[in-house]
């Protein structure tokens, strides 16, 4: 079954205009001069053996694969390219609740039936109303142009018209592929100590602030997207118009109309001063003072002889204000601190997996070669840190696997002190009540080390 539809963009980000290169070499008397600048590139060998330019037929593109560069010719690249046919295909339907709003990407498209095509209009309307009644959405595969390499998969949402003269339509949003998703995991607020969480008075002050800044308190909504210009673009084009008329004109002050867009309503703020006062009163906000000299400057001056006598407090401050060191590997001296530092690094989701893996290996190494007087104490501290981290990140699998290996190791070596030490600290398996992905019940977790105790002879 095929239905002819037309596709329009409903919303699209307006990009900032691209600045062009401008040449002043053309004579001022030449009114037809374009002042255009053309850029050309020359390629030469990096070994320096020849200073001649490499012609295009002797050049080939290379793509990085790890540390090496893989050359791929134009013919090979054309053969590898995916060349799908232009068109839209419905892959299936699903419940609307399964498509999360944060998965929408890029622009929003509007799908309508082909104008003047009665059969297409009836088909689109029937499908849209059926989807609306069942609270369903459609998953589509789209290729916008013939020969286009990019294929998008998106969600089609019904848009039922309230006007008899306007036919029903669909909204289309692009969905991400697996490579597009960024899984940055953050610890739950519930895992923080009580001192880090707001009390009832602080929560009430925050609620009142949100209610006070309501954009539609009297039924008249402010900052409607249809009537709110981009202040950056608006200011740029106003200045561009001014420069076209007066080349020596200075940058004008910010227009009052734009101030209403980027700043809170002054009348609203004045009327609700008590709300801001309550917020300041319940949240003790302090401004971090700027240091007069950075730690590097302090160190250099100390080496050169200036500021030779520095008080203890100043020396401590210079160290405390240094930026935190990025931990890339769990060391032998402070494995728990290194693990916590790696888990807190959120610039890459791989840090969590790397930290858990390295601490597991460190624990196993400590079991084979335990410290002298502390015996297994250091390993137990690492197990406690690993358990806490796996619960926060909801990753029970690596920890539970490690505990099974520890129990097996203790049974093979006849070690009883370590299981007793772990049991005394409640360092047992992570149960399903602590992590949703765990397949261990609370009873199995409690009896994990009990199973190791030998049964008395009858």
Automatic annotation (TrEMBL):
MF term (GO), any: ATP binding
Report the record's Gene Ontology biological process terms: DNA recombination; double-strand break repair via nonhomologous end joining; telomere maintenance
Alphabetized, the UniProt keywords read: ATP-binding, DNA damage, DNA recombination, DNA repair, DNA-binding, Helicase, Hydrolase, Nucleotide-binding, Nucleus
Q: Which SUPFAM superfamilies match?
A: C-terminal domain of Ku80, SPOC domain-like
Which Gene Ontology cellular-component terms appear in the entry?
Answer: Ku70:Ku80 complex
One Pfam entry name: Ku
Q: Tell me where in or outside the cell this protein is found.
A: Nucleus
Against InterPro entries, the record matches this protein to: DNA_bd_Ku70/Ku80, Ku80, Ku_C, Ku_C_sf, Ku_PK_bind, SPOC-like_C_dom_sf
Domain (Ku) spans 51-192
Q: Which Gene3D superfamilies match?
A: 1.10.1600.10, 2.40.290.10, Ku, C-terminal domain (1.25.40.240)
Query: What ranges does the record give for the region Disordered, renumbered to this chain?
Result: 295-321
Query: Where in the sequence does UniProt note compositional bias of the Polar residues kind?
Result: 296-321
The UniProt similarity line reads: Belongs to the ku80 family.
Q: Which PANTHER family match?
A: KU AUTOANTIGEN DNA HELICASE, X-RAY REPAIR CROSS-COMPLEMENTING PROTEIN 5
The protein depicted here goes by the name: Ku domain-containing protein
This chain's source organism reads Gossypium mustelinum
């Amino acid at each position: 079954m095929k239905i002819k539809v037309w596709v329009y963009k409903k919303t699209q980000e307006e990009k900032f205009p691209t600045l062009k290169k401008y040449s002043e070499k053309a004579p001022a008397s030449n009114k037809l001069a374009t002042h255009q600048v053309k850029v050309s590139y020359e390629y030469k060998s990096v070994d320096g053996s020849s200073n001649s330019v490499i012609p295009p037929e002797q050049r080939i593109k290379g793509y990085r694969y790890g540390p090496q560069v893989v050359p791929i010719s134009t013919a090979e690249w054309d053969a590898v390219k995916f060349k799908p046919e232009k068109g839209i295909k419905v892959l299936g339907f699903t419940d609307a609740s399964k498509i999360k709003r944060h998965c929408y990407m890029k622009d929003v498209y509007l799908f309508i039936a082909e104008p003047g095509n009665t059969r297409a209009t009836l088909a689109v309307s029937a499908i849209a109303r059926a989807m609306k009644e069942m609270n369903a959405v459609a998953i589509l595969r789209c290729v916008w142009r013939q020969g286009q390499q990019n294929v998008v998969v998106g969600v089609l949402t019904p848009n039922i018209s309230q006007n008899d003269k306007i036919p029903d339509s669909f909204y289309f949003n692009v969905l991400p592929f697996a490579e597009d998703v960024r899984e940055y995991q953050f610890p739950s607020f519930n895992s923080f100590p009580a001192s880090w969480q707001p009390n009832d008075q602080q929560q009430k002050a925050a609620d009142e602030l949100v209610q006070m800044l309501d954009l539609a308190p009297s039924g008249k909504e402010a900052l409607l997207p249809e009537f709110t210009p981009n202040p950056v673009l608006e200011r740029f084009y106003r200045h561009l118009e001014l420069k076209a008329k007066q080349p020596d004109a200075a940058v004008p002050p910010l227009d009052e109309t734009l101030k209403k867009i980027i700043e809170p309503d002054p009348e609203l703020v004045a009327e609700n001063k008590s709300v801001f006062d309550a917020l300041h009163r319940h949240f003790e906000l302090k401004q971090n003072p700027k240091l007069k000299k950075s730690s590097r400057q302090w160190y250099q001056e100390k080496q050169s002889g200036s500021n030779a006598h520095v008080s203890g407090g100043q020396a401590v401050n210079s160290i405390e204000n240094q930026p935190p060191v990025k931990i890339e590997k769990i060391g032998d001296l402070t494995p728990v601190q290194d693990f916590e530092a790696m888990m807190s690094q959120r610039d890459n989701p791989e840090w969590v997996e790397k930290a858990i893996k390295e601490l597991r290996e460190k624990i196993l190494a400590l079991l084979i070669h335990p410290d002298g007087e502390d015996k297994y104490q250091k390993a137990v501290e690492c197990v406690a840190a690993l358990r806490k981290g796996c619960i926060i990140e909801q990753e029970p699998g690596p920890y539970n696997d490690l505990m099974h290996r520890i129990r097996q190791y203790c049974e093979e070596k006849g070690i009883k002190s370590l299981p007793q030490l772990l049991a005394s600290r409640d360092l047992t398996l992570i149960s399903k009540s602590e992590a949703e992905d765990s397949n261990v019940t609370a009873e199995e977790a409690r009896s994990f080390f009990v199973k190791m105790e030998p049964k008395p002879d009858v």
